[in-house]
Amino acid sequence: MASRNRNRVAPKEQNAWNIPVQTKSESDRQPARKPSTANGSKGGAAAAAAATSEPAGMSSSKIPLPSSMLKKSQEKFIQVQRQHAETARKYAAEYVSSEEEEEGENASGQEAGAAASNDAATRNILGDVLKNYHGAEADVGKTQEYLQHLLESRNAVCLICIETVKRADRIWSCAACYTFFHLMCIQRWANDSMSMKRINHEQQEGYYNNRGEYIPKPALDVHWDCPKCRREYEPEAIPRHYECFCGKEREPNAHPWLIPHSCGEPCEKQLNPACGHTCRLLCHPGPCPPCPQTVNVSCRCGNSPVKTIRCAQKSWTCARKCKRKLACGIHECGAQCHDAGQCPPCQNRSKQPCLCGAQTKEVNCYESRWQCDSVCNKPFPCGLHHCEGVCHAGPCGPCPLGLPRSCPCGKTETRAASCSERIGTCGDTCEKVLACGQHLCPERCHQGACGNCLELVPKVCRCGSTKKPIVCHREAICEGRCKRMRTCGKHQCNRKCCDGQCPPCDRVCGKTLPCGKHKCSSLCHQGPCYPCNQKSTIKCRCGGTVAEVACGRERKANAPKCKLPCRAASKCHHPNTHTCHPGDCPVCVLPCGQPNDTTNCEHPCRAKCHDAVQVVTREKNFKPVGPWDVPKETVEVKTLPHPACTVKVPVMCLGGHETADWPCSNSKPSSCGRQCGRLLKCGVHRCPLACHKVTHRASTTQDSRCEPCSAGCTLPRPEGCVHSCALRCHKPPCDPCLVSIKSQCYCGLTQVFYKCHEFYPTGMEGKEPEELAELARRRESFLSCGQKCIKNFPCGHRCTSICHPGRCPNPEQCSKKVKVACKCGQRKVEVSCKVARATPSLDCDQQCEAVRAQKQEEQERKEQEARAQEELQNQRELEEYERKFGKRKHRERKRHQVQQEEKGTQWAVYVAPVVAVLIAVALYFLFVQ
User: Fold this and answer.
1) Per-position DSSP letters for 464-485, written without gaps between them
2) Considering the domain boundaries, does residue 604 fall inside one?
3) What is the C-alpha to C-alpha distance for residues 613 and 574, in angstroms, rounded to an integer?
4) Is residue 238 part of a domain?
5) Residue 151 lies inside a defined structural domain of this protein
6) Cis previous bond, 273, omega within 30
7) Looking at the domain assignment, is residue 743 inside a domain?
8) DSSP state of 530
9) Please, what is the angle between helix 120-129 and helix 137-151, to 10°?
10) Are 692 and 676 in contact, with CB atoms under 8 Å apart?
11) Is the pTM of this model over 0.85?
């Protein structure tokens, strides 16, 4: 634990003045300490190797190492040292020792807060899972605790081997306390327990009791217990297999998305108390939570209407009062809703006589039949004797002396004449069994009880060392003293003739308790004494608050929390406003509030109080021997100077463009970076310089420090003019533009030249429409070449106007001569173009009609010839068909004709393919072109 405490580095508070504070790790301060093997990290082994190999070589050698080798070894040592420190920090953060319970209470509070924030997600998930389960809070809390232990790492621990129960370990869960154990551990535990019991049973022996009877050793009862709850299990119950929590699956696999050691199936165990429902959770550790099913039940008394409620809370109580009659039959119950037959006893009081009627007193209604302590003393029917029984109800019965009676020894039975007659002894030997249970009374029949047994019998003493004859009613005791040690293990029994059952030691322990003030008042015992049960008082630092703690814990116990103000003297100029506390006062966090002598302004210092600040300094001229040697640190409490004033004050820039808030320590006017923008003397341009110092910040005109205007004229030219003014920057107006412009005329045959100011004169803005129309006509004359237009009218004849813009004027007045013909084209006349548009064609005359009739006759003649040729062709095809498919008639006169036709057919067979090829070639060239 000491090594783990040394790995913790206390955080140091940073100051507001940026003073370099260098921290030193604990591993640097103790380079010779070996790394703890409990961590088991590679970083620790590497750090040990680095700390033991290279430094040892350097210290043993007299020759200094080269600077490169020294630098390399130092870097390696620093890297390993960081890994070791990180591992130790993690281990210290995760493990909390019992020895630090009192000293590190504040630190453990911070670690508990961090652990609580890390466990928030797990608790939220478990809360959502168990939000519908209500009833016994202990069962729900226990189930949530076991689930959280499984979902979080390093929480489930086997109590036998004290090792973490991992997700893939084979475990066994107790059926009573639901604690996890490694399967191999619980098997070894059970076998060892039963083996020890068998060995102890073999070592036991029988003994003689005080009566000399031999008591054999008890029978062997072999069983094993749970290591935590001590529930007994039979030898057959030793777990042999690894099963899930619900017992459905054997050897369940570790699934990353399931609860460890769970099969992932519904639990389905019968809930306790038995309600007929099964557990609906997935296979889970710990007890099953209360039944979440909803049932329709009435209240316990059955007077309220049925409502839907959780099965675990189905026994609910309404606000009505029970009206059942109590056992007294007079009063009603009046208690709040409860089960039938569970009415409390009637608490009303009344005067009731006892059973015999001798006394009367006020008792509770449920105690109406009470019994007094007096004897009944009622006379029997005989009138001679009275009842000797205690107060009772009913008749006393017949006189017992009137019944058949016997002599005192019981051997002779006779019936007396009356109850007043006395029965005497019979004179025979009594022979009743005496108190020893072995011998009979040797006296004659007598009244009263028999005496002690006086028979001499041999008896063994209690310790079993002596045997001698002794009177039967006496116990055999020898004079030997028992030398056995009592249960305390310090004192002998020293009891006369001990029977082996030595009583516990009756002496007072008297040892001084660990508190050092009191002595143990318990009986003598083995082992350490119980802690002192006395109380001691501890006080806070100021003594105003007192608390009680167990005696001996005064030094380790924390001082009580005191709400009184702290009485320690303040280290700064502020008074202490915190409450009483142990240790040094906390750092003052109030603002300084004193005049700032660093910037000498009127603002008070607003920084955190710096009258007493811990400053860590290192030795400047320190020369390390090796990487394990570090400079010494000196912590001093100093008063630091006031930091620069940071109060925001309005500051105007040099040129007066803007006002911004700047820290008081840096509140000098500076350039804002914008363009100066002051209007220069030319009246057109502005100062192009960046914000600069001027004489009058409020002025907007040129200052003596502004740059004079050196630009050319930027005045706008007339609309259409694209030439800039050649003069320097001046006031309007500019001189007329004398640039000559070359352009083509409207017809595009020649080029025309004109002056820019003639075509785009100045001052035409806002002129009258007549002046604008005159300007348009003048511009048109400038762009016309004066020659005849080369464009054509829509009719196709040339324009007769001079070079002009737009469409040609008067296209309908074209007088060009054109020829007009009739529809048949026989008659033609030459007329002007405008007349031809009015009458586009002439009427046909008689000559035209004669020509049309001649053409029609010619067309009819051609049609008749074509029909004759078609009929002849059809006749030939018909004859050819009949020749091929009809019956042939062998006629000599047609043989020559047939041969000619066959020759013609043979010629067609050879010509047809050639013609087809020629046609194909012609079509190919036609499509290609």
Assistant:
1) SS-EEEEETTSPP--SPBP--B
2) no
3) 14
4) yes
5) yes
6) yes
7) yes
8) P
9) 130
10) yes
11) no
